[in-house]
Write a structure and sequence with these properties.
This protein has 76 residues and is an alpha+beta fold. It has one domain (9-71). The chain contains one helix and five strands, in the order E-E-E-E-E-H. The protein has one helix spanning 57-71; strands at 9-10, 13-14, 27-28, 44-47, 54-56. The strands form two sheets. Strands 3-4-5 form a three-stranded antiparallel beta sheet. The longest helix has 15 residues, at 57-71. The radius of gyration is 12 Å and the shape is globular. The protein starts with 8 loop residues before the first strand and ends in a 5-residue tail after the last helix. It binds zinc ion (ZN). Residues 36, 38-39, 42, 55-56, 58-59 line the site of zinc ion (ZN).
Amino acid sequence: MQPGAIQCTRANKVLPLPGVLDHREFTRVRTDLGRCDVCDDGRAVFRSADGRVKLCEKCYGRLVRAWNMGKGVSSG
Ligand SMILES: [Zn+2]
């Protein structure tokens, strides 16, 4: 699995995120963003800097983990 490449399988859909996604570009917001762009299930609470991608807590966590793994950083 490549860093930043997140795949969600849901309802026979695979939704890969662009590999350019960087969790540091995401900001937690308090406004209602609607559904997560990746899993289309969780409530989105993170928004990318350009506002085009919204992530729920779970998918954001995976993004961070994938990024950490790519960086060789071990955490949690
Ligand atoms: Zn999600």
